[in-house]
Design brief:
single chain, 12-stranded mixed β-sheet, 305 residues, 10 helices
Length: 305
């Protein structure tokens, strides 16, 4: 089934080139169906790249989905045009009276700052309070996951001695969880962050369950036992070249950074990296959308408590 998108969204043609089923909202309105409503809180600097990554995954499930993009009203991004934001993004005031079946909160390049010093932190807090009564399930990624763990479960992020950057093997701790249905017992996933969350502190939080961990990268997947929050500390949504782009960007800035681990063939940055995590990316998003959103959300929000 398709994802329903604004007619002129630039990424639509890229998705169609990848055989992702996209339907513009004009055509979708002629179909008698209750599509899922998903809110994407896009905090990443290169918004169009993140749109492409996430829409590709939402469009690869059998569920028809309407997508709404949200930006922070208190922050003006530098890597996307104002016209793109004005045409395709909402701010909280625009959507506060709506209800959504699912919400995705992306990562953000602010993880080395205390949460309260992030310019749009008050907006994030407002959004998370609002989501308690207006969203069925939230999938948060990297900094977004850390923000949810901090605000909802009082678990603070911790600095790493060096950046965790690379593709790492992970083990399942709860292989029978619907979130990881179809996963191999050991699977690969990319990480790109300077901070982490404590496995020991997560175990002491009775409302949480750790689903997958890595000996090298630490905790990866966490879910709340009420299934309202799914948190991924890494970036399964990344393209094959995203870690390379970040590495080359940091080198160009004159930053000291190591080659991403287990990423380039033979650890040689001149060789093209391969996407070794794609199948599990699609499984994660389809499992979340099916088991935690579609099968949990009320058919009519207006009749739910």
């Amino acid at each position: 089934m398709p994802i329903n998108l604004p007619k002129d969204l630039p990424v639509i043609e890229k998705l169609r080139d990848e055989n992702i089923f996209v339907m513009d909202q004009e055509r979708a309105h002629t179909q008698d169906i209750r599509p899922l409503e998903v809110l994407i809180v896009n905090l990443m600097p290169e918004k169009e790249k993140t749109e492409h990554q996430l829409l590709r995954l939402l469009g690869n499930t059998p569920l028809q989905t309407n997508v709404t993009f949200l930006r922070m009203a208190s922050y003006q991004p530098k890597n996307v045009s104002s016209s793109h934001l004005d045409q395709f993004y909402k701010v909280f005031e625009d959507i506060k009276d709506r209800r959504f079946d699912g919400m995705i909160v992306t990562g953000a390049p602010v993880e080395q700052m205390p949460f309260e010093e992030v310019a749009y932190w008050p907006e994030i807090v407002t959004l998370l309070f609002w989501a308690k009564t207006h969203v069925t399930s939230t999938l948060s990624i990297c900094w977004g996951a850390q923000a949810v763990l901090y605000h909802e479960f009082t678990i603070e992020k911790e600095d790493l001695p060096k950046k965790c950057s690379g593709v790492y093997p992970h083990s399942l701790l709860t292989p029978h969880s619907p979130l990881v249905r179809g996963f191999n017992d050991t699977f690969l996933a990319p990480h790109s962050r300077h901070t982490t969350v404590s496995y020991e502190k997560l175990l002491k939080q009775p409302a949480l369950e750790v689903v997958a961990v890595s000996d090298q990268a630490g905790v990866f997947l966490v879910q709340s036992k009420d299934q309202r929050h799914i948190m991924a500390t890494g970036h399964l949504e990344y393209d094959a070249t995203t870690l390379r782009d970040e590495y080359e960007r940091d080198i160009a800035k004159g930053l000291e950074c190591e080659v991403p681990e287990n990423y380039f063939p033979d650890d040689d940055p001149t060789k093209d990296p391969q996407n070794t995590w794609r199948s599990h990316t699609h499984l994660l998003f389809s499992n979340w959308l099916n088991y935690y959103v579609y099968q949990q959300t009320p058919f009519e929000w207006s009749t739910s408590s």
